[in-house]
Design goal:
The complex is a heterodimer of chains A (144) and B (358).
Chain A (H helix, E strand, L loop, with lengths): L2 E3 L4 E6 L2 E6 L5 E4 L1 H11 L4 H11 E2 L2 H17 L3 E3 L18 E2 L6 E3 L3 H6 L2 E3 L15
Parallel strand pairs in A: 5-7
Antiparallel strand pairs in A: 1-6, 2-3, 3-4, 4-8
Chain B lengths: L18 H19 L1 E8 L2 E8 L2 H10 L3 E2 L7 E7 H4 L18 E6 L2 E6 L4 E6 L4 E6 L7 H5 L3 H10 L3 E3 L2 E5 L2 E5 L7 H10 L3 E4 L3 E4 L5 E3 L4 E4 L25 E4 H4 L7 E12 L5 E5 L1 H15 L5 H13 L2 E6 L5 H13 L1
Parallel strand pairs in B: 2-4, 4-8, 11-17, 17-19
Antiparallel strand pairs in B: 1-2, 1-3, 5-6, 6-7, 7-8, 9-13, 10-11, 10-12, 13-14, 14-17, 15-16, 18-19
Helix pairs in contact in B: 6-10, 8-9
The chains are: A alpha+beta (144), B alpha+beta (358).
Chain lengths: 144, 358
């Protein structure tokens, strides 16, 4: 199964090994560290779930079972939060399948840190795009 | 659930026409208002640029200028931005054409458009209409009645226009407070109740520079730099007891049953409001009850505290603003500011950091 980041609704930044994501549609925002940030980076570069389950155990110092369980759980969370969407046309970037040289990285299962406190702002101060014809074009008098 | 919008007077929606004739209608409305009530012009120095505010009459000038008094200049030079500001009630002119709305909306609903370098936002709940033409460096702000503007629009006037203008100049408006001294300053970020205002106002009381408690501007290049937009602040009335030196600066003491207290720092402490200062750190206040101290946190933690509320507050929601904030927090260190019970320790802690980083 392949995915893509749910652009343009979702924006993300990788900074000092952590990923911060915002879902602009509902105001929820998220962060991921360590193992989670690596998973996000792979998904962002078009790596499939099957490829992910081959790459991650080779990269992290833990049992294959632990790494696979953590990866599957995280991908499930990312899909549930609509941060990634299914996209079978996604193609991995040229260097996406390379495993960094050197010893394996320490493994710690990471859950998606989720913040929902901005939902009120979206509800109380909703932003509507003016009709695609835009101001100054008037819609038919439909409630104005 | 949000309160449904109370009956709002219906305004004339724009008739089908061109952008050019619509902006001409805005110009015409302002010209008529100024002819009726007189033209009042004020020059400001904001974010290192000259800004000219042209008011039709004194009603809107009286509402807005207290927040900008720190930036007023007799001659700020050729303006990079000209803003025309008027209301219909005091000038007697008809409202300009506004975008059509759906009706039955929450009070905060906003209608946004962007067309050929012109951006606009209409809020039927407050009857305010902001239009910015980036190419011409010209903007318009109309409201139905200057006397009906909500307290947040009085404390931070034309916020939407300044947001667009700063973006057009490669700068960012941030949802943050800022304080500093001769060695630079910090921005203070976090959700409501985290201690943002407490940090800014206790620092002000200790003699530090005040850059704002909620809305500031920053430039990333050539170095991170904070600009003061407003010398105002807002406080829950109950919190005024902790800041007795602000009592005389409160502008709305008779309506504190239903408004936050708005105060203007410049009138009380003119030497403590500066145009800006170099940014040395991002602080994330959190009330712990222990000793007041700075604890390093990751850049990502600072981005989480800063970016969502800034980006989601005003349209348009732009991914590049997120990237700019990520770059900003990479350039300066970030700390959790743990707040103890003695608010006097807050400015001491910040000043010690700034002095050590000079």
């Amino acid at each position: 199964m392949r995915f893509r980041v749910n652009n343009p609704e979702v924006v993300s930044e990788l900074i000092d090994g952590e990923v911060v994501m915002i879902n602009l549609a509902n105001g929820n925002y998220y962060s991921l560290k360590g193992f989670g940030a690596v998973v996000w980076s792979y998904l962002e570069r078009g790596v499939s779930s099957e490829q992910l389950l081959e790459l991650l155990p080779a990269r992290f110092d833990a049992s294959r079972e632990d790494v696979v369980d953590a990866a599957e759980q995280l991908v499930r969370s990312l899909r549930e939060e609509h941060l990634i969407v299914d996209d079978e046309t996604a193609v991995p970037a040229a260097d996406a399948l390379e495993i960094p040289a050197g010893s394996k990285e320490p493994f710690e299962s990471i859950s998606l840190e989720t913040h929902r406190d901005m939902q009120d702002l979206i509800l109380l101060d909703p932003v509507h795009e003016v009709d695609e014809r835009g101001w100054p074009y008037a819609q038919a008098q439909s409630g104005a | 659930m949000p309160e449904p919008l109370a009956a709002v007077e219906e305004l004339p929606a724009a008739e089908s026409t061109t952008l050019e004739t619509a902006t001409a209608a805005l110009r015409g409305s302002f010209r008529d208002a100024a002819a009726s009530a007189g033209l009042v012009e004020r020059s400001l120095s904001l974010a290192g640029e000259s800004v000219r505010l042209s008011y039709a009459g004194t009603a809107m000038a009286n509402v807005q200028m207290d927040a900008f008094e720190h930036a007023a200049r007799d001659d700020a030079g050729e303006p990079a931005l000209r803003i025309h500001i008027w209301d219909s009630r005091s000038t007697g002119v008809e409202p300009p054409p506004v975008p059509p709305t759906r009706g039955g909306e929450v009070r905060g609903a906003l209608y946004y458009f962007e067309d050929g370098g012109v951006r606009g936002a209409y809020q039927p709940g407050t009857s305010t209409f902001s239009v910015f033409d980036a190419l011409e460096g010209e903007a318009w702000y109309w409201t139905q009645d200057a006397g009906e503007l909500p307290y947040w629009d009085r404390a931070e006037p034309i916020r939407q226009l300044l947001h667009w203008w700063l973006d057009s100049r490669g700068m960012q408006r941030l949802h943050a407070g800022a304080v500093g001294n001769a060695n630079g300053g910090v921005i203070v970020v976090g959700r409501s109740g985290s201690g943002k205002s407490t940090t800014a106002l206790s620092s002000l009381g200790a003699g530090m520079f005040y850059g704002g408690d909620d809305c500031i501007a920053v430039a990333v290049d050539p170095e991170p730099y904070v600009y003061t937009l407003y010398n105002s602040g807002k406080l829950h009335p109950a919190d005024l007891e902790r800041f007795p030196y602000l009592r005389d600066a409160v502008s709305n003491p008779n309506v504190l049953d239903y408004e936050k207290a708005i105060f203007y720092v410049h009138g009380q402490f003119p030497d403590r409001v500066v145009d800006g200062f170099p940014l040395r750190a991002v602080l994330l206040p959190t009330i712990t009850g222990g000793a007041t101290r700075l604890v390093p946190v990751s850049s990502a933690a600072a981005l989480v505290a800063l970016a969502p509320s800034t980006i989601l507050q005003l349209p348009p929601i732009e991914p590049r603003a997120f990237s700019a904030m990520a770059r900003l927090v990479e350039l300066v260190p970030s700390f959790r500011l743990e707040l103890g019970p003695d608010i006097g320790e807050i400015p001491t802690t910040i000043a010690a950091f700034l002095d050590s980083s000079a």
